[in-house]
Amino acid sequence: MHKAMPEKGRAGDEVLTELTAFKGEDPRYKEGRVWSLVYYLDETHSDFIKEAYHSYSSENGLNPGAFKSLKKIETEVISATADILNGTKDVCGVVTSGGTESCLMAVKTYRDMARSKRGVKRPEMILPKTAHVAWFKASEYFGVKVRLVPLQDDFTPDLKKLKRLINRNTVMILGSAPEYPHGIIDPIEEMGAIAEKKGIPLHVDACVGGFILPFIEANGEDVPLWDYRVPGVTSISADIHKYGYAAKGASTITYRNLDYLRHQMFVYENWPGGVFASPALLGTRPGGGYAAAWSVLQYFGKEGYRKLAEDTVAAVNGLKAGIDDIPELEVMGKPIGPLFSFRSTDPTLNIYAVGDQMDARGWQVNRNQFPEGLHAMVTAQHLRVVDQYIADLKASVEVVRSNPALAKEGGAATYGMLAHVPLRGMVKKKVLEMFSEQYRAGGGELDLKSGATAGDTPGLLDKVVGWYVDRQQRKGR
């Protein structure tokens, strides 16, 4: 419903009360019920980062010569990041607004570098199929064609096929530490050797792992090399607002040296407003994000992050052990770190129906496709809910096992059908059409998911499937 701006202002307390009320239907992340999007520890930590953010909420990092404090903060954040990523003193980079901006900047950088140094006019980049969707967005934004590497049975990229995809138009290769869908760390050492031999930059997407894998390793866990210790790695993206527990949004992109970073930067010298230079995608760069990011690094230090990593790994291990105790389920691949996915090994047990049952019990569970599964992004906060999650998961499996018809209801039916609709281009077009409608002035509520129960308001995916079913019926199929 369209709601115009009020003619007169309202009392501050009244506005803040209504603002808080908006959260009534939001996920219960403070109870450990959410398995993505939010990295919450407790109210003490939340209050701390709010105060840090507020202390620089008006400052702007657009001009590093104006607010010198912000440039000092950014420099120290990048130095700390380079330290935990085992970089040398030559490692350089910038703070960005989030992982997507960091990924976009890598693609822009390597496209422009290949254009400048090798005259590449039709740029391509090589991505494993498990690459985060941000890389496909970057492909569309910057006109860099994606060449996809298929996966092996263990969900790692097929390196023999990766080698065959390299050609004169290749501007970069991507590896992930870990990849999002299954939590697998790509074989960065082997990929680095290939990249170095071919003279192609290798970017490591550690947006998820950058601020936890170093501390998991420091705690004595076996983690394969993936950072600047691998000679072929030329850049790394790592989000502080994930497992660094900073305020949204704060990420980093670092490069092995300035020879790479220079190609990321934008300079325009003929603007009537003066010579303009920008290091990354944004113009205005919110100082609050810088301040909160710097503050959490100082607050936790390496010792604090090691403890958070220890708690997170304990939660992950508890969840995996609980899943292993359920005969019909298995963890996909051999994930290392805070992410994993699991699937059904029983063809009569629909994993999406299990997800519906978990949703009904108050958990916000994410779904995978290709193959079908459920996903968990685990934080230190989840350690206290492991037993309850596993108990509810066992109960959910029993409900679905005793009632296979649940596979044809609610979200299970929607996700199951959507994953098998053959006309992917038409699905994309229809999702875009429906998704964009939500952004009209006064647009309706946005729900990407399917409802877990038949009485729920249909979500976007329900509508797409409904469109497809109607289309097939009209065609007499």
Automatic annotation (TrEMBL):
Topological type in the membrane: Single-pass membrane protein
Pathway named in the protein's UniProt entry: Sphingolipid metabolism; Lipid metabolism; sphingolipid metabolism
Major location category of this protein: endoplasmic reticulum
Subcellular location: Endoplasmic reticulum membrane
GO function term, MF aspect, one: carbon-carbon lyase activity
GO cellular component terms listed in the entry, alphabetical order: membrane
Example of a GO biological process term: sphingolipid metabolic process
N6-(pyridoxal phosphate)lysine found at: K242
Needed co-factor(s): pyridoxal 5'-phosphate
Superkingdom of the organism of origin: Bacteria
Keywords: Aminotransferase, Endoplasmic reticulum, Lipid metabolism, Lyase, Membrane, Pyridoxal phosphate, Sphingolipid metabolism, Transferase, Transmembrane, Transmembrane helix
Annotated family: Belongs to the group II decarboxylase family. Sphingosine-1-phosphate lyase subfamily.
Protein name in UniProt: Aspartate aminotransferase family protein
Source organism of the structure: Halioglobus maricola
